[in-house]
Amino acid sequence: MTRRTSILAYSLVLVLGLLGLQSWGIAVARVEKHVIAAIEARTGLVVSGLERAEIALLPLPRISLSQVAFAQREGPVAGRALRIRAQAQLLPLLAGRLDFSRIELVAPQIDVAVSADSESLAEWLAAPLDYLEGLRGQSRIVITAGAIFLRAPDTIRTILRDVNLVLAEREPQDALTVSGSLTWRGVPAEIGLLWPVAMGRGKTTLSVNAPLLKLQFDGIRSSAPEPITTGQLTLSTRSLPELLGWFGETPRLATAIGAFSLTSEARIRPHDTALTNVVARLDGDRLDGALNLNFSGGRPSLSGTLAGAQLDLGRAISRLDIAAPDHSPAAAALPFEAWTTQDIDLRVSVEAARLNGGRLTDVATYLLVKKGRFEAGILRAGAYGGSAKGRLLATTTTGGIDIKTSGALDRINLGQAGGDLPQLARLTGTGALQFSLDGLGRALPEILASLSGKAVVSLRQGDVAGFAFGDLLRRAERNPALALRDWRQGKTTFETAGASAIITNGVLTLNDAQMLGPGYRLTLIGTAALADRTLDMAALLQPLTGPLRLPFSLSGPFDAPAFELEAESMLRPIGATGVSPLLLR
Question: What does residue 248 show for φ and ψ, rounded to 5 degrees?
Fold first, then answer.
């Protein structure tokens, strides 16, 4: 090439470059036929209005539309964008036609029409997924600083803010690929989606990385004879109640769980999800098994069987936040409907469990929830050399919540139990307990005040620390005044101890309670108010032979009752007035 030819070529390139870099304002009518038609073909969106169109040819052909209104033809998607930028492909342009490798929507506000009765996120996303699946391929679509409004008639169901998404370019048979970030209900999230749109089988993946949720799903989606997706699911959250609240669900029972993670094989159908080979961790406690989630019939349901090495039942129960009794007349009614909004049939077995400090072994528990019915129980458990079981049933009636509860402890080694339960630390021996109670009411104080039933407790071959009843009797026989000093020391050995009680309208009445040991008998009578959690009882200590009788009082709150020797009654001459009822026995 001669020098002159080179100068001419370089000059031509320079002129074309300068012309290409220059933005030219052109009439809407000139671009509507080609540019807008090409955008519609690659996005499925019809441009219905714009203020200005600009085109630049170099370094790459590009088109910019300002203040653009658009809508899906006979579809649920519509909106406006501050600007639409389209990058044309060079080779098709040289052939005389427009096609775009990239289309960017800058600061769009997109409206997606959803059904009036749709409530879940899956139902809300069905419409935009249907729109994307309906495209016969598309250019690379970029949404920058956008907002997506999911609207039902006359109401906004939800809003996705700070939307920065990239929809990868694809051909008609290719899978839809979406990646980027958005903010939903105040929580930022990074998402990734691979979704097959062709008939048959295709790989699908979903990832979500947010402060409340880490989720990864890898599987295969099949569209015939019904849509079924199978694959490996992994998710974790710092707080299950917070996560469910993010999705608009507030099941009261979920508050029993804090940090939660799950891995499983999943089989997802339109209204049913089966999870197998489940490994779930509840606050670090691992449970393995299978679960099933069903969303048909208007009520979500959860069923399954789980097993593990250990589980802290007491921690879960304490998180349920059952309000302490409020004795005011306006005590709030228990939110029983909120406890039974989901159907649950869950069976859990663990090798060891903790319950309010107590340790259980070989535990089998269950939870059954139906509309208006709540039932939970321990089918079996080992406890300190013995066994334990219990059941709670609550149902709604016209009078409020009908409560039925029962339980049994058998052959419990009290010395072992006292190491975990401070309230039993003074006792040794072997104990048993049986009780059954019924109650009715709307608020907790009302239920406690209505409880009726019976209870039986028995102890054998043990000691009570903190009292030396035998020494107390011997000192009292020699000098009653000396018995008043240092009587709360030592320990008392007993051969048998037991009590039976009748509960009526929230008041427990002891009708037969005594403890027998070497040379003494201790008898106890009185009442306990279950709603107020207070005791009002009297005890009488006497030798197996002889006239001496030492009266005591047991009164005060359940947690810290006062056990006092009634010195005045003990020293009162026989025949004086005001004699303790136990002294008359």
Answer: 85, 10
